[in-house]
Amino acid sequence: MTLPASESAAIGAHARELLTGGGAAAEQPFLEHYRALLQTDPAVAMAHAAALRALQALPAEAENQSERLHARTNGTNDDGSCAWDNADEAHPDALMRPAASQPGRV
To answer: pTM to 2 decimals?
Structure first.
């Protein structure tokens, strides 16, 4: 499945926000734990740098705020539920969890 450039840009921007601390207040518990790991585990720091380099390859988000908002909410159903919940593809949130915490993965 190929995503439109606007959706790829939105996913990349959100991932960058999570990894660099520009996310929403609800993401602060993740960020606090993540920052601690960055400081204590060299493997996490190296993976962090590799992830940020990979994210640079994605298109930039639109300058227009309404276009950014549209791309960022495109993955929701009309009722606000996640459009990926009944999809055959892996849920994007699963890509952000360590493999050991994903069902069926070691």
So the answer is: 0.57
